[in-house]
Model the fold of this input.
Amino acid sequence: MPRRDDLHRILIVGSGPIVIGQACEFDYSGAQACKALRSDGYEVILINSNPATIMTDPELADRTYVEPLTAAYAEEVIRRERPQALLSTVGGQTGLNLAVELAETGVLDRYGVELIGAKIESIKKAEDRLLFKDAMRKIGLEVTQSQLVNNVEDGLAFASKIGYPIILRPSFTLGGTGGGIAYNREELVEILERGLDLSPVHEVLVEESVIGWKEFELEVMRDLAGNAIIVCSIENFDPMGVHTGDSITVAPAQTLTDREYQMMRDGALRCLNEIGVDTGGSNVQFAINPADGRMVIVEMNPRVSRSSALASKATGFPIAKIAAKLAVGYRLDELKNDITRVTPACFEPVLDYVVVKIPRWQFEKFPGAEPVLGTQMKSVGEVMSIGRTFKQALAKGIRSLETGKAPAARKLDPNLISNRLITPNPERLDYILFALERGESIEEIHSITYIDPWFLRQLQEMVDFEKELAGETLEGVSRATLLRAKREGLSDTRLARMWNADPLAVRARRKELGIHAVFNRVDTCAAEFESFTPYLYSSYESEDEAEPSERKKVVILGSGPNRIGQGIEFDYCCCHASFALQGFGHESVMVNCNPETVSTDYDTSDRLYFEPLTLEEVLNVVDEEKPDGVIVQFGGQTPLNLALPLKKAGVPIIGTDPSNIDLAEDRKLFGRLLDSLGIPSPANGTATNPEEARDLARRLGFPVLVRPSYVLGGRAMVIAYDEDTVRQYMREAVNYSQDRPVLIDRFLEDAIEVDVDALSDGEDVLIAGIMEHIEEAGVHSGDSSCVLPPHSLPAPVIETIKNYTRRLARALNVIGLMNTQYAVQNGTVYVLEVNPRASRTVPYVSKATGVPLPKIAVGLMLGKKLAGFKELTASAVDGVLTTRQYFVKSPVFPFNKFPGVDPALGPEMRSTGEVMGVGDSFGQAFGKAQVGAGTPLPRSGAVFLSVNDRDKPTAVEIGRRLASLGFQLFASRGTAAALKSAGVACKVVFKVNEGRPNAVDLLKAGSVQLIIYTTTGGRTFPDEQAIRRAAIACRIPCITTISGARAAAEAIASLGSRPVRVWSLQEIHSPVGESATG
Amino acid sequence: MNTAILALEDGAFFEGVAFGAPKDSAGEVVFNTAITGYQEIFTDPSYSGQIVVLTNPQIGNYGANVYDQESGRPYIEGLIVRDLSPVASNWRSLETADQYLAGRGVAVASGIDTRALVRHLRTRGVMRGVLSVTGGRVEDLVARAKSIPSMAGLDLASRVGTTTQYHWDEPVSPVCSSDHEAAPEPPRFHVVAYDFGLKRNILRRLVHAGARVTVVPALTTAEDVLALHPDGVFLSNGPGDPEPLEFQAAQVRKLLGRTPIFGICLGHQILGLALGARTYKLKFGHHGANHPVINRITNKVEITSHNHGFAVDPETLDLNRVEITHVNLNDQTLEGFRHRDVPAFCVQYHPEAAPGPHDSHYLFHDFIQLMETSRQH
Done:
């Protein structure tokens, strides 16, 4: 059964912005699907609102629409492009939901589009809890027993039938609020009463508890002929009760006998059959009672999932690519295994190594959110590590996390052990190791964590061995012991700390003793067949399989785990660096440890090292490959932190010199440079104690921006309007010392912030994009919407910005990319920051301008000149790239996952992802970006305004405009007074503490469609927070800055009742300016 | 901790830590890539004369129990692993894998770079080796490895199987309350099973599908088998080279056409020999649980369990008399055939799994079906 010839054009739906639970793994799967289908001669149409993705590169599809993932926009794409089929299974839950909506609203039928991958009935059977349970019971699989109840009596009756503990999940509450576990009748009554009250539909799901059971996942692939394989089994280190995305997971499953495993395998295949998944990949989750082996099926996803990405990386089996091929009719046995080349894709990969995935959380960015883990995913990223044993893989995984916490430097409190063990939380692994160090037994720990004793025993061995090693010295340690330490996964740094030595001395010593890292291959078959794909991981085994080539080659250091402030944008840059290197005839070598990314696809680079991004591991790769250059400027902060040590070790860093990168980060040196160039920056200084801080703040004048040195994504940054805030900050908020002073800047109020990305070859400087922020300075640049080209900056300001950018690039001798942040206040341009490296905005600018910035940057690093890239830059060499339309980038926030957190924007970055809106006007582009971000602006209804005094004049303008567009206005007392005195009619509404009905009541009643609630500066008050939180809970757009409000009004006016318009990147950037037709 | 050394006949050697029984062992060194099911592998009589390398690095995690045994004791000569678990974590386990093997006389080397060893065997082919846990010198061990009788030409089957006839009526039992195994069929057919090193799960599967089984020794004559009035004859798996099994092939020739025949693994090879085909030794054999096999009749792919070092050469099969039914998609080797005129069929792989996927259980029902049809004629 070869490919279907009746299909020619296929629409692929992406997954949209990065959010918690749906990250760049879907860029990986979507990009694979695009490539797979195009290589088979299909025309691919793609829709995805996320500009930071590889899949939305114009080269990956025939038509690429960076447009909102809503039915209206998708329908317009379908109307224009007339695809015959829609592949719904590679765009995560978002893609699947959109496909269902298009099917149910008749769009697909209307345009004759066939759903391929998963049929609508299958999706519904898998997604609807009750339908799913019925289907599974029908085929003899056990499921947890559950019942929906709307009164306490029914809940009690059900509980008496199935016994305690009981899980309670109120229906339709944000983030599962109000749910819980009841261990007895009293608790049940208490939680159930509260849950019924909190549920808007007065309904709670009462469910049998399988908390503490062992949790497993199987990744299954099936073709149209019914051939099915298990690609990978995954066992969760954290038992049931913690979301898989928040669990440490291990592949392959470690504690199942063949009998149990085959029972699970049979169950998974029967499940796919019953759900009716004709083709593609699915993920099936099971729980097993460790006491008697009883197995229940927990859920299944009839699509490519986060776990599929992990399984693909863990095994070398490209699930998404194969899924796309199966969707167009291929059989599994007609497809080849890329890695062995001779064997078919119809087999089950076997592993002769162990893979560990560890999530990365960032609760510290969401004060007010309790750092506990449960059934809702909270992690923002993950790392994967590969080792020959579990211990080695776990140790590598821990250092891949880059939490900055070495195991020895952990600050753990003995009094917290039992609490941290009982309640799953981000520090649980640390605390288990700590408990074992203090002599607690595996049995004790198992009895409160339910973690399988086999895993605990492995941890025990790690702890015991480290104790043994502590008695050694660097000089005295034997070769055998040192080799064992390396085989068990201990880093040079860890050993150095134990032995009071320098990590590089440990490295030197072990090399003297002939202990070198070697590299093994991930080959899908445990070495049964020869591998032709250099997909490598390090170990301390006896044989090296890397087989490096003699070609000219460059190593690219990736960006490690996703985190807020360092995400998919940097992976985009790294992948492009790799493609560019190949284009320039160099071999590309990738080093990264993030399984969600395109960069860790073995197809992306010539050679892939799946390794932690530490100095030790990177040096190992460099020793092995002996590259002509190493690129550190594309992976965000992670590789930059390694730049200087690598340079010191003699590694050839190409592009901007690491010392100049460092100079730009060093406050004093950079200040001196600015002075010498005569470029203004906000007055600033450093402080190492509270008194110094207070004096400095006084001298600079309030408000001031206070932050620690060397941080990412605005960690722990505040704007202080008074001395109290500065004092409190110095007392509580942050660690500082003589080496790491606190940085204090004069904060520029009401300034417009501008981001500039530029390319430089050391002489010519090409300005790629001048991005005007919508939110005023003070909101982290990653959390602010921005527009390209700038829509309100006067020409002289733009000239000044161009002039400063060029001079800075030359002064820092930038070779490659540079990002500069400016603030414009009353016509004066101040430099806030210069980063001589790829920035978060590079993919967005590349897509808006149609110019592949990373590609040119790599050319420059290889010694080429900007003048040599005229065919890519529309002949621009030292000017500014132009755009034909307006492109707005807007952030997406995870506040719905952190109930209780104030969603007001500030200097600390908290957005996880971004979308892009394209339009003929700023308003249209901004409006589309808001739709894409999931916070569509209303076209009619009522607006509630409450602004601070400074914002009142602008608020009046906005109010007048909205009123003229037919909106009804509500306002708090002060704002209402301002509106009324300007002749704008509005109704006064109580603030929360003023009486009822108040603004929150209005929200809950659905009488308000938009909220404009600006902060009062400095601190926020409970009242403001209550309203903003209520807005998040009611899913009503809430704008917290006045400039954002102004943009929103313009967008509302611009979108009005006009029809939906979409443009593909190909038509936007076509050289002849192919006009948008249709 | 005692050192363990595995020395190969070509002079290569690998060092690890000794576990299991404190005695040296010798045999052909083969590798198995299955991720689960080590206890079934230990106890599979087909591994007689072989030291087994497991490619899954973490072995012993779930301990050992009394249920997952394919025979009464371990048959492997020695075990080579990357990391042997000191604990057993599973509700059915009774002892650790180390205790299990130590108590039954099998030596283990742990901490071995099994990947390097497998790559060595893959490129040079399987070879003889000595596993020493008692401190032998490498040169001596290599010399001893060279002196081990080669597997080729060795009749192990007649030695490993039962010496007395017995009955088997135990079906497959569910592993736990969630096991969705169908209920056993009533025993409507009498199967006589030749034991050349029989795995118990074959017997359980036969019973489950509706047979009662009489197991007979490898040296039983066709006449004695027919005297038991079988509805069908089963030819079991077993160790070693099929070529020397001329007696067995001759008995099968006599049985062909007199009673339905089903062969698995060595049984498949013997059936091939009986029909005039030749067998040959594979470079490093098939030992694992992930091989894709296409059923040419249904055109469906089965993921299958394998354990064989020899194979039937399809070039030597008389295609006028037999039809090739199963082919390995990895290397196109012959995996199954059936007789065109008389009721006889066989597969090279292990439909009873244990360990491995259950995709091929249907073959036991096919055998029942074949007996049913034959009975009607």
